[in-house]
Amino acid sequence: MRIDDWKQAGERFRFRQQNVFYREAGQGEALLCIHGFPTASWDWHLIWPELTQHFRTIAADMIGFGFSDKPQDFSYSILDQAALHESLLESLAIHSTHILAHDYGDTVAQELLARFEHRRQSGSAGLTIRSVCFLNGGLFPETHRPRLIQKLLLTRSGALIGRLVTEDSFRRSFFPLFGPDTRPSDQELQAFWSLIRYNDGPRVAHKVIQYMQERETHRERWVGVLQNTTVPLRLINGLQDPVSGEHMVKRYRELVPQPDIVDLENIGHYPQVEDPAGVLKAFIDFIEGLEKSWK
């Protein structure tokens, strides 16, 4: 699917005076797909047709990403992005969902999960989360290994650094995230870059990147919910990822009770792009296993 086709098939809704792009397709139980940094919902395009055969599938470009607005006066908090997804699902009259998340989206999913557990324990109404499946991401701040550009964006010169990012510098930083045999083509790299530069995204990159500090601030809440949730979890992880690969999986095994993990050998940070068939199988098997246990 070409990126222009993805955009043409999308819709928009308003969240806090901002236009948010999203895709919705399929029928059945809801599945919320939450993308990572610095790209957008198009990350799901290779597995989208199959997902929509099984689920009513929803994927948004969060504020600051892809085809959504990228305002300079927005807080870009993970808390805001979680609220965005809650608002989108409410607008679609969806009250229960599975979640498939990646990278930055993992952190948003952790916050959504923490909110659900709080509601469940207090007896409050709201969105029900049926399951969460994580792809590579910074689930634990102590195991996250950011790229140099991410570190620079966090400095006092971050605003300037963001404006200086070019397609060439993006390619040099982005290319090594992938496995040795699953590197993106020039066409794919151009598509990823077009998502970032749309609506002049680099000028707000230093604001979006503050999520790395939020992970430190909210570690107890976001790691704690992984350890205590009643919601079924699965981690599908590309082990060759330099940011959150095998070293993150090791920490997951240490901290999460009865960890359910699918390792993808020779795959890097974007398993849904690098090994779409492997991700689909691991995810569908996870959901089918849950359905059998619930009967």
Structural description of this entry:
By secondary structure, this protein is α/β, with parallel strands linked by helices. The protein contains 14 helices and eight strands. Strands 1-2-4-3-5-6-7-8 form an eight-stranded mixed β-sheet, with helices on both faces. Helix 12 links the parallel strand 7 and strand 8. The longest helix has 19 residues, at 104-122. The model has no long low-confidence stretch (mean pLDDT 96).
Which helices and strands occur, and which strands form pairs?
Layout: H1 3-8, E1 11-15, E2 18-25, E3 30-34, H2 48-54, E4 56-60, H3 78-91, E5 96-101, H4 104-122, E6 128-134, H5 148-153, H6 158-164, H7 167-174, H8 186-197, H9 205-208, H10 211-217, H11 219-228, E7 233-238, H12 246-255, E8 261-264, H13 271-274, H14 276-294
Parallel strand pairs: 3-4, 3-5, 5-6, 6-7, 7-8
Antiparallel strand pairs: 1-2, 2-4
Helix pairs in contact: 3-4, 4-11
**SS class:** alpha/beta
Number of strands: 8
Order of SSEs: HEEEHEHEHEHHHHHHHEHEHH
The CA-CA distance between the termini, in Å, is 36 Å
Unreliable stretches covering 5 or more consecutive residues: none
Strand content: 15-25%
